Every structure is written in C-alpha cells, then in structure tokens.
Amino acid sequence: MATSAELINPSVTRFGWIGTGLMGRSMCAHLINAGYTLTVFNRTLSKAQPLVDLGARLAQTPHDLAAQSDIVFSIVGYPSDVRQVLLDPTTGALSGLRPGGILVDMTTSEPSLAVEISAAASSKNCSSIDAPVSGGVHGAKNGTLAIFAGGDEAVVNRLNPVFILMGKVNYMGPSGKGQFAKLANQITIASTMVGLVEGIIYAHKAGLNVASFLDAISTGAAGSKSLDLHGSRILKRDFEPGFFVNHFVKDLGICLKECQSMGLLCPVWLWLNSSICRLRLMGKGIWVPKLDFGFGEAQ
C-alpha cells in the first residue's frame, strides 16, 4: 500500500477505476499496460470483463473497490452518478477509502459537485481532484486526451506519472476549476464545429472544390482541431459517431446553468442546446447521428 508521501509507481500504488464504458475502458487499459494493479467497478459488470481479461480485479461496489485502492478514478455518465459512486455513505468510494487516499473524478460534471467532493474528502484526510477530459474515444484509445485538473496543485503534480499515460494534464486551479475549464472547452468545440460545417456547406454551394478549400484554410486563421479531425471525414461521409447525444445534452445543461449564475449569455450555445435537444426528441439520444450535410463525395 502506498502512503500519501510516496511517489506513484506500479510497485506500490494500487488503483481503483469506476466506469468502464467506451472512455473508461481505454483509459484504464493504459494503466494496466503500464504495470499498475487495478480493481475495477461498473454497474453493468459485463462491460468490465475486457479489463478483467487484462488482469484487473472486479469489485462489487465502489466502497469495496476503494478499500483495495490508494487512488480511485471515476468516469461515469451524469453528476447524479458521480454523487452515487463517490459520496453514497454506504456504497460510495469515499466511505471505503483510507486516510491519505485520492479521488480523481474524470467525468464532465458540475463544478459545485467537485467542490463538495473535495470538502468531503478533506474531512476524511483524503484528497480529491476534478479532472475531466477532452479528446473523445479516439483520444482515450491513443492516450492523447487533454486533461483539465482542479484541486491541490501538489496532488495534481504527484498524479502526473499517471495522467501522462492518458494524455496531457493541464492544471486549472482549485477544486471545480477543472470542470469550469471543460465546460469552456465544450462551448469552444460547439462553436467551432458549427462554423466548420456552415463553411463547408457555403463552399459547396458556391461551387468550390471543398477538399481544396479545406486544405487552403487549414494553415490560416480558420484552421482548427475540429477541421484537422473532422474535415476530411465529413467529405468522405464518414459520420461514425464518437459521443453520446445524451451526454452532450448533459454538458449543455450544466453549462447553461453556470452561465445563468454568472449572468452570461452564450447565443450559439443556446441555439445548439435547442438543436441537440431536438435530436434527442427524435430518438437520437444514444449516439451523435450520421448527419447529411447536403453534399456528396469530396470533389
């Protein structure tokens, strides 16, 4: 068992991982492949089986998982799920974590909940870091996620050997600031994607060679990560989904709530919220659908 003063390394540090869906499964696998001892929990136990096959142990509750762990990671669906798996007084991870342990919640969740978890952890002489991620399933598989960390900077620095296995950690400030950074990230992504798609449609309607157009703007002021990752895919009509509509609706809702508390108006975000909610009403809540942008194969 590691103590709070020890460096994190595979020979002494035991990890717990809660949430083994598309993101969590890949992120957790990087830790197993690096030689760490892992105990995993997922509400649908069968989804944890691929990690068990890699050598992870399976726990029946988050409490049991935390009792076998020095550091507990979580990446689940909604703030209510975060509260249940971490703070439930009987089955939650914090109830089983020994003093000196660390909770690392990588779910996109509410900043106020991150602050609440941090306070609860401190009351048990534990630490808590909010560390939501950006990069999607592709980034999780390739270990190239952007990680937004909030909490005690010394704890974040101590966790860096673990974070580096999953991507690049960025320290954003005290508890809750990692979540605020992720919400700002979502606003930026949404606005950029809307602009990219409208630009493509405009170029097509104007009779431009769209592939040449995208190549031309990629090195100018309109260049972006969204263009790099999705521009050619759109032209090839490769609309393989990589994100849950319901989870994006969740992100939208959290952000709009925070905007209201700040007295801030984000018009594009409001429009996108109504558009994405319509998709969910159409029964598209599981995956981002294969949209038809109104043009054929790349010219």
UniProtKB/TrEMBL annotation:
Pfam families: NAD_binding_11, NAD_binding_2
Start and end residues of each 6-phosphogluconate dehydrogenase NADP-binding domain: 15-172
Stretches assigned to the 3-hydroxyisobutyrate dehydrogenase-like NAD-binding domain: 176-268
Active site: 182
Keyword Oxidoreductase: yes
Keywords: NAD, Oxidoreductase
GO MF annotations in UniProt: NAD binding; NADP binding; oxidoreductase activity, acting on the CH-OH group of donors, NAD or NADP as acceptor
UniProt protein name: 3-hydroxyisobutyrate dehydrogenase-like 1
Organism: Hibiscus syriacus (Rose of Sharon)
Source organism phylogeny: Eukaryota, Viridiplantae, Streptophyta, Embryophyta, Tracheophyta
